[in-house]
Amino acid sequence: MTIRLLLADDQELIRGALSALLDLEEDFEVVAAVGRGDEVVAAALAHRPDVALLDIEMPGLDGLAAAAALAQQAPECRVIVLTTFGRAGYLRRAMTAGAVGFVVKDTSPEALADAVRRVVRGERVVDPALAAATLAAGDSPLTGRERDVLNAARSGASVAQIAAQLHLSEGTVRNYLSAAITKTAARNRMEAVRVADDRGWL
Q1: In what order do the strands lie in the sheet with 51-54?
Q2: Most C-beta atoms within 10 A of its C-beta, which of 11, 61, 118, 124?
Q3: What is the DSSP string of the chain?
Q4: What is the overall mean pLDDT for the chain?
Q5: What residues form DSSP beta bridges with 52?
Q6: How does pLDDT run across 131-153, given as a tens digit for each residue?
């Protein structure tokens, strides 16, 4: 059986190298390679890959959003997130989006090929150190509203702008921000966003 692969990475050099590397495997065929996240679903529907290898940081749509879109529109295509960013938060969000594999880019070619074959067999494949870090981060202590407020603060919005966006009073927004900063042991709201992001709480 030939395993059909879709690659998505915005760096042409990485995309080309990955394609050449994976094509060396006798049972692999790279059927599509795209450089934007918003091209992933169309390529999957056109070429019907068995596995999609998605980078996280891409223009148009990030790899996590593309994974969620694939789960909806091409559920037979298994997703492996292949990224430089080995962070617990990304792993948690990737699994929530429907990915069945999470591999960092400094893995060996043999380990990557093995990961592809394992997900085709129905297994989940996650970098062990990252899995341990994700478990150590624990469940989110943030309430739904605290998450909403931190997400709104991500862009650097003022308290007044966040309040208007979420239809809350400015005092309520300040209270939620204060609680989120305390729970993340951060010094300010932007650090709270970063900490919560890294731990997969947003």
Answers
A1: 28-34, 3-8, 51-54, 78-83, 101-104, 125-126
A2: 61
A3: -PEEEEEE-S-HHHHHHHHHHHHTSTTEEEEEEESSGGGHHHHHHHH--SEEEE-SS-SSS-HHHHHHHHHHH-TTSEEEEEES---HHHHHHHHHTT-SEEEETTS-HHHHHHHHHHHHTT--EE-HHHHHHHHHH-S----HHHHHHHHHHTTT--HHHHHHHHT--HHHHHHHHHHHHHHTT-SSHHHHHHHHHHTT--
A4: 91
A5: 6, 79
A6: 766 666 667 889 989 999 999 99
Q: How many CB atoms lie within 10 A of CB 46?
A: 11
Instruction: Retrieve residue 37's tokens.
Output: 């996240």
- Say if residue 22 is exposed, middle or buried (CB neighbours under 10 Å; 0-12, 13-18, 19+): buried
